[in-house]
Amino acid sequence: MYSESSKGMDDGPDSAQAAEPMGLRRLPSPRELMADAMADDRARETVARGRRLTQAAIAGAGTRRLLLLRLPLPALLEQAEQLSAWLSREEGWGVLVQPLAAATTGRGRQALLEQRRAYLQCLAAGVPLAHVLIQLNEMAYLSDLVSAVLLPPTVIESQIHRELASALPCPVLLEPGDADKLQIARDARQAVAASHRFPMLLSEGRVGLVESAGNPDGAVLLGPGMLPGGAPHLLAFDDAPERDEDWAPTCSGLTLTASSVAAAQRRFERWRTSDLLATAG
């Protein structure tokens, strides 16, 4: 409990007053926010299709591989229909799109609502999404719209992020960023697959103690020269590598970062014609 006007014996602020926040803002419950921006049948089917695709790619089941496409959110919103049309013509590949957005200054109701609406616009075009998990509570507001989550290098060492990911209904992609964190990413994948007990924001807005069953659908994103070490993996490159040794064998898929759908399509076509890409899987 925060104290509004209490002083210690020497008239200085006590610890409760010193810890008082700059401001408090009530957030709606996840259920309230979802009611204001509800997923329809098409959106739910797109989410489910993206989850099935990612699970199959991670498990090595089937013949399709996964393309994790990283695009700025404004470009994605403007070109979602174009992206959907391109992907419908690709054979042997499925796609998840990771929206690249500027960091927000807060997670108030309006910011969360705008994010749900942006994701729903992408899903309406048939584009499944991968969400970067940094703010822990936001998955309570977005998990029904997300086909996969990505734990970036800044959080793969966080135990609470690993615990939360173990309870999510979608696959988890772990990005070490560099070779020094590769073993950390492998350890994180094992932690995500294990059962945990931890506090979690529930749909009605209360915090409950959750016991997860563990999430078996995890993969590591490998950069140049990183070896998979037996773990399911995707190859993470901003551009096509030039050396054979930069490609890990039998990959489940690739990542590609571009400024627009047209740029992504040109780069992917160049990869498709390379001997390295032909022998990567």
From TrEMBL:
Superkingdom of origin organism: Bacteria
Biochemical pathway: Metabolic intermediate biosynthesis; chorismate biosynthesis; chorismate from D-erythrose 4-phosphate and phosphoenolpyruvate: step 1/7
Extent of the signal sequence: none
Region (Disordered): 1-29
General function of this protein: Stereospecific condensation of phosphoenolpyruvate (PEP) and D-erythrose-4-phosphate (E4P) giving rise to 3-deoxy-D-arabino-heptulosonate-7-phosphate (DAHP).
Name listed for the protein in its UniProt record: 3-deoxy-D-arabino-heptulosonate 7-phosphate synthase
